[in-house]
Amino acid sequence: MEDADGAKLRMIHSAGPCIVGLSAIPYSEVVINTMLELYAEPSTGLYMVNISAADPTRKAGDAAYTQPLVIQK
Fold first, then answer.
1. What is the DSSP letter of 38?
2. Inside any domain, residue 1
3. Residue 41 gets which letter from DSSP?
4. Lowest CB count within 10 Å: 28, 31, 43, 60, which one?
5. Into how many domains does the chain fold?
6. What is the pLDDT of residues 26-56, one digit of tens each?
7. Rounded to whole angstroms, how far apart are CA atoms 3 and 27?
């Protein structure tokens, strides 16, 4: 079942600024399959990628995942 609002994604540089903030990313069950198009090339550094989504069944509650992402050039 797909959530009407979709998942939310944020990519935050360790220095502070959020360089990507998307909402309403469609998903089905527990799968998010999408490609991000960045309008500017991200700089070298450590980023935190946060994805959050509401449980479409409203039984298990919301889910949020945060993972580090290192970009090296």
1. -
2. no
3. P
4. 31
5. 1
6. 777 667 777 777 777 888 889 998 888 877 6
7. 7
Structural domain that includes position 45: 7-71
Q: Please tell me the distance from the alpha carbon of residue 17 to that of residue 29, in angstroms, as a whole number.
A: 31
Q: Compute CA distances 23 → 14, 15, 28, 50, whole Å.
A: 21, 22, 15, 12
Determine how many CB atoms are found less than 10 A away from the CB of residue 7: 20
2, part of any domain: no
Confirm if 71 and 43 have CB atoms less than 8 A apart: yes
Tokens of 56: 């479409």
The answer to whether residue 15 is domain-embedded is yes
State the CB neighbour count (10 A cutoff) for residue 54.
16
Q: Give the residue from 52, 49, 53 showing the smallest Cα distance to 66.
A: 49
Looking at residue 26, the DSSP 8-state letter turns out to be: -
